[in-house]
Amino acid sequence: MLDKIRDAIQKPLQEMNIVVDSIEYVKDGSYYFLNIVLDRVNGLDLDTVVEATNIINPILDDLDLIEESYILDVSSKERDDQDE
């Protein structure tokens, strides 16, 4: 399932120079989360994460691979290259 999701979202995101770093589907308490971590050279700002989420959401709706209700969590990869 996660590979199908990666395959479906990867190409549209590559057009924005965004790569899919990781995808995981986890249960936390009574909630399910689909966590998608994105990355790009020089990182992603919040506006770009929102734009990417707006691309990902309809793709996931069309795929309809997950039966349970879940929370989509799209975020950018944390960076360690801050000024020291």
Q: Any guess at the CATH architecture?
A: 2-Layer Sandwich
Uncertain residue segments = none
The SSE string, one letter per element, is HEEHE
Gap from first CA to last CA: 40 Å
Largest sheet: 3 strands, mixed
Query: Would you tell me the overall average pLDDT?
Result: 93
CATH topology: GMP Synthetase, Chain A, domain 3
Shape: globular
Structural class: alpha+beta
Assigned CATH class: Alpha Beta
Number of domains: 1
Query: Mind telling me the CATH superfamily name?
Result: RimP-like superfamily, N-terminal
Helix content: 25-40%
| Widest sheet: strand ordering | 1-2-3
Q: What does this 3D model show about the protein?
A:
- The protein has helices spanning 2-14, 46-63, and strands at 19-28, 31-39, 71-76.
- It has 84 residues and is an alpha+beta fold.
- It has a single domain (2-76), classed as RimP-like superfamily, N-terminal (GMP Synthetase, Chain A, domain 3).
- Strands 1-2-3 form a three-stranded mixed β-sheet.
- Helix 1 (2-14) packs across helix 2 (46-63).
- The longest helix has 18 residues, at 46-63.
- The termini are far apart.
